[in-house]
């Protein structure tokens, strides 16, 4: 449950989700200048996450609107966890030391 | 399709027939009506249908039209129409119905209260259930007062239930549908009749089957059957009490853009989110053209139904031990809260009173084995859950990893392994130390743990003192090791902390050299600083001596290297400052012995070294103690002081 817990702490923050199917969604505010070679990244505010790491984003924007015009009108989306390739996070919202500790605890639990 | 067969066998003839006819009529009427409404529907089609069905009654047309709204909205554009002629018997129709998509299937079984819902998936076809249940309401509304539970139907589901996977949670959809009807409303008025593909007569028959098999009443929610290996989520799904349903209306994404009200958020997190929302709401949201049009697909599920679905998911996530299962989230927001509390103490206003977080505690029904061993099977049957998505093999490391050849990489691995073991011990200690800053513990058990950890750090299975120190240095050469020591220091009693400090200062040049890549020594500064402030004069001298002594075989003193490194120079300054403090506070030291002479000598030496150093290579210390210059003034001539001043102040311009 480590990453479920981790993403829960990021609810309400802006993230960029890169998908496996070459679809990136960007959230509305930030225009990320990415070298988007046919990879879709969706940027949005993380609304919620579940134990399968399915992600709900609100207020999204896509990297390359002209490439994916069908996403122009979409404001909120649900992304199935298995289709996510990367999630770009705000660095200051992540406590790496705590993440390490959580990973250690998780490893310990798994061994038992 | 098992449920279909069962239906056929158990359908009693007498009491149903009457209902059958009425339903057929009403359904036919409705379908006819709908066909007319659908684009391209013609009168011909209507009459064709009507004649086939043999229906003339138009009373229930409106009711059925509403019902089919529900039905067709869900099945709209996905209705797989069967092109069969009307001569098909109900059985054959039923068989063909097997080929239909899951949604259609679901309508058949009275899984509302009894039947297995496996084919439908657990939660998806709530809409169908609503419509089916509403169709049932229609039965009631049409005046059938003798709603006795069908005796033939009753024992049937019992058998079926056991075999099937329990996904039937006593649909609140049904229950709410009942409530709805009792309230008198048939359905939400706002639903428009969408475009529906014309229905073929066979599908008409199919729907008749559905209605026939709908048992009139008694929603007997079945409790989940005993554990089955195929149970995916590993918990017993509890039947949610309808009375528990929250009646707060929220939609996703709600105006507040909060996740469902059923999710448990840390109060700190909740506050943050609300702040965010307020700030966003203040800027007027741009009106989009599509948001103003009425959405024909809105409100298909009531709030209760949505809550029920969410609750099902949340139940799986409840854990007995949120501290462990939800470690990152809990700790993160605790830290945030603490930080805010500290800020508040420093003057920043605290806006809201902290709320008590109530975590619902649901007993985990039973532990289950994720790897199922079936007798006579080859290997293991992997059952995946949300906690362990795939455990197809027993991937457990056997044997120890200690017997390694003396290769460099294995040495490094050994060190890393050792650090990890110590980290686990440290985490235990930190867990034991509830709240408050880490400090030398007073409880027996904790002191033992700390002692154990310290020994692990210091000795590392070495007999020789030098080698022990070497082991310690190896730990310190790794970034993780530095983090470990930094976090461990506050827990150590003073004498042990001092020994570590001395070890560090004695080998400072080496550490500095090894730290070039990481630049991670800084994290040691704070805990060491605290340790320094408790040093005795003698210990202090010991620490400084290591720096000033000429290392054998090298022409320069360690101080030179140290001065060029930020951590080194900060540590040095901290030591000097502390020494000066001790001296100024305790005048007896001045009169005494060799210690004081040593001290003076060292100060002079260091001052000289600083003066020698080109300003550019002097590192910037993390903190600059205020009593350094006066210290130098005491012991060094004016010219040198001026030089020092110039160097020190030039290097760090505030």
TrEMBL record, chain A:
A GO CC term attached to the entry: U2-type precatalytic spliceosome
Chain segments annotated as coiled-coil in the UniProt record: none
Chief localisation class: nucleus
Pfam family name, one: LSM
Alphabetical GO biological process terms: mRNA catabolic process; mRNA splicing, via spliceosome; spliceosomal tri-snRNP complex assembly
All residue ranges annotated as the Sm domain in the record: 2-93
Cited PROSITE patterns: SM
Keyword match Transcription: no
Subcellular location: Nucleus
SUPFAM superfamilies the UniProt entry points to: Sm-like ribonucleoproteins
GO molecular function list: RNA binding; small GTPase binding
Keywords: mRNA processing, mRNA splicing, Nucleus, Ribonucleoprotein, RNA-binding, Spliceosome
Family note: Belongs to the snRNP Sm proteins family.
Physiological role: Binds specifically to the 3'-terminal U-tract of U6 snRNA.
Name of the protein described by the UniProt record: U6 snRNA-associated Sm-like protein LSm2
Species for this entry: Equus caballus
Gene expressing this chain: LSM2
């Amino acid at each position: 449950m480590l990453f479920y817990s981790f993403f829960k702490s990021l609810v309400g923050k802006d993230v960029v989700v890169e998908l496996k199917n070459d679809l990136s969604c960007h959230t509305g505010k930030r225009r990320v200048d990415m070298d988007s070679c046919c990879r879709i990244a969706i940027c949005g505010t993380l609304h919620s996450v579940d134990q399968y790491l399915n992600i709900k984003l609100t207020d999204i924007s896509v990297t390359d609107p002209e490439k994916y015009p069908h996403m122009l009108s979409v404001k909120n989306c649900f992304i199935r966890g298995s289709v996510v390739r990367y999630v770009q996070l705000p660095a200051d919202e992540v406590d790496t030391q705590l993440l390490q500790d959580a990973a250690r605890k998780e490893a310990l639990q798994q061994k038992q | 399709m098992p449920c279909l067969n069962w239906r056929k066998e158990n359908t009693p003839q007498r009491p149903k027939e009457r209902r059958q006819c009425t339903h057929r009529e009403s359904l036919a009427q409705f379908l006819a009506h709908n066909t007319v409404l659908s684009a391209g529907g013609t009168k011909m089609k209507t009459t064709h249908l009507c004649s086939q069905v043999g229906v003339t009654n138009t009373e229930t047309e409106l009711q059925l039209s509403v019902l089919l709204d529900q039905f067709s909205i869900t099945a709209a554009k996905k209705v797989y129409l069967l092109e069969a002629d009307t001569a098909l018997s109900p059985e054959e129709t039923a068989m063909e119905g097997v080929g239909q998509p899951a949604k259609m299937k679901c309508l058949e079984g009275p899984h509302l209260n009894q039947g297995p819902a496996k084919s439908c998936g657990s939660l998806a076809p709530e809409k169908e259930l609503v419509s089916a249940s509403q169709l049932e309401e229609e039965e009631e509304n049409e005046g059938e007062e003798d709603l006795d539970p069908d005796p033939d139907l009753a024992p049937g589901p019992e058998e079926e239930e056991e075999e099937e996977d329990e996904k039937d949670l006593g649909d609140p959809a049904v229950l709410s549908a009942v409530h709805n009807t009792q309230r008198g409303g048939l359905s939400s008025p706002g639903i428009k009749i969408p475009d529906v593909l014309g229905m073929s007569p066979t599908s008409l028959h199919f729907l008749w089957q559905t209605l026939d098999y709908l048992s009139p009443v008694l929603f007997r929610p079945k409790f989940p059957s005993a554990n089955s290996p195929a149970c995916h989520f590993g918990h017993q799904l509890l039947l949610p009490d309808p009375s528990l349903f929250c009646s707060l209306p929220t939609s996703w994404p709600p105006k507040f853009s909060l996740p469902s009200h059923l999710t448990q958020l840390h109060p700190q997190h909740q506050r943050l989110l609300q702040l965010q929302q307020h700030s966003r709401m203040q800027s007027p949201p741009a009106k989009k053209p599509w948001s103003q049009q009425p959405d024909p697909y809105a409100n298909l599920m009531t709030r209760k139904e949505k809550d029920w679905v969410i609750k099902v998911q949340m139940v799986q996530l409840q854990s007995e031990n949120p501290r462990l299962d939800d470690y990152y989230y809990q700790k993160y927001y605790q830290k945030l809260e603490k930080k805010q509390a500290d800020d508040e103490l420093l003057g920043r206003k605290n806006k809201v009173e902290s709320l008590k977080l109530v975590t619902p505690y649901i007993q985990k029904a039973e532990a289950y084995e994720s790897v199922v061993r079936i007798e006579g099977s080859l290997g293991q049957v992997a059952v995946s859950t949300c906690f362990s998505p795939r455990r197809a093999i027993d991937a457990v490391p056997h044997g120890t990893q200690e017997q390694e050849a003396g290769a460099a990489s294995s040495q490094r691995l050994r060190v890393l392994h050792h650090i990890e073991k110590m980290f686990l011990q440290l985490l235990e200690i930190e867990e034991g130390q509830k709240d408050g800053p880490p400090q030398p513990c007073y409880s027996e058990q904790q002191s033992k743990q700390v002692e154990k950890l310290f020994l692990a750090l210091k000795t590392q299975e070495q007999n020789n003192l030098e080698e022990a120190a070497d082991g310690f240095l190896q730990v310190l050469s790794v970034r993780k090791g530095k983090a470990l020591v930094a976090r461990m220091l506050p827990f150590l009693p003073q004498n042990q902390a001092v020994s570590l400090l001395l070890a560090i200062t004695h080998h400072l040049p080496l550490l500095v050299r090894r730290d070039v890549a990481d630049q991670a020594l800084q994290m040691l500064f704070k805990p060491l600083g605290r340790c320094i402030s408790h040093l005795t004069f003698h210990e202090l001298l010991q620490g400084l001596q290591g720096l000033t002594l000429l290392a054998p075989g090298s022409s320069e003193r360690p101080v030179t290297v140290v001065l060029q490194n930020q951590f080194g120079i900060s540590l040095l300054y901290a030591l000097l400052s502390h020494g000066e403090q001790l001296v100024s506070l305790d005048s007896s030291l001045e009169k005494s012995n060799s210690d004081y002479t040593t001290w003076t000598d060292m100060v002079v030496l260091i001052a000289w070294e600083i003066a020698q150093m080109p300003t550019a290579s002097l590192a910037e210390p993390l903190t600059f103690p205020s009593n350094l210059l006066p210290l130098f003034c005491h012991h060094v001539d004016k010219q040198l002081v001026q030089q020092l001043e110039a160097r020190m102040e030039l290097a760090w311009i505030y």
